[in-house]
Amino acid sequence: MKISSKGRYALRIMIDLATHNSGDFISLKDIAIRQESSIKYLEQIVAMLNKAGYLETARGNNGGYKLSKKPEEYTVGDILRATEGDLAPIACISGEECTKKENCKTFGFWQGLDNVINEYIDSKTLADLSQ
User: Fold this and answer.
1) Contact at 8 Å (CB) between 9 and 58?
2) pLDDT tens column, 103-116
């Protein structure tokens, strides 16, 4: 499993919003400056996070983004899945049809790896990373 830059920046955006939470909306421009990234790239990621229901948005001069829940209510796994999709290490773990699954000597290993990955990323919250 390799996390793309979208997944990494999604975490960075969410941490930024949690860290700079004053109750006001935070402009994407401010986030882009702090994260040293282009607004255009962050817009793509924010759209995914917004679609997942993780952000509140407002337009206008005082517009921007803020978290829709408390930082401790977001797991790292939720955030990564919103941008990366399924995090399974191989296709047959994520439910794709595999004709060799019944006799596969490595399936249990891959399933165990998937469990370890998911347990770890689901055990960490946005609050944990924001400290």
Assistant:
1) no
2) 899 999 999 999 99
Instruction: Tell me how far apart the 2 most distant CA atoms of the chain are, in Å.
Output: 61
Q: Do 105 and 111 contact (CB within 8 A), yes or no?
A: no
Where is 55: in which H helix or E strand?
A: strand 55-58
Which of helix, strand or coil describes residue 50? helix
Evaluate whether 94 touches 17 at the Cβ level (below 8 Å): no
Residue 95 falls in which region: left (phi positive, over 0), alpha (psi -120 to 50) or beta: left
Mention every residue, 6+ apart, whose C-beta is less than 8 A from residue 113: 89
**Encoding tokens for residue 109?**
């290993």
- Residues with Cβ within 8 Å of 53's Cβ and at least 6 positions away in sequence, in order, are 68
Single-letter amino acid, residue 66: K
Confidence at 94, pLDDT banded by 50, 70, 90: confident
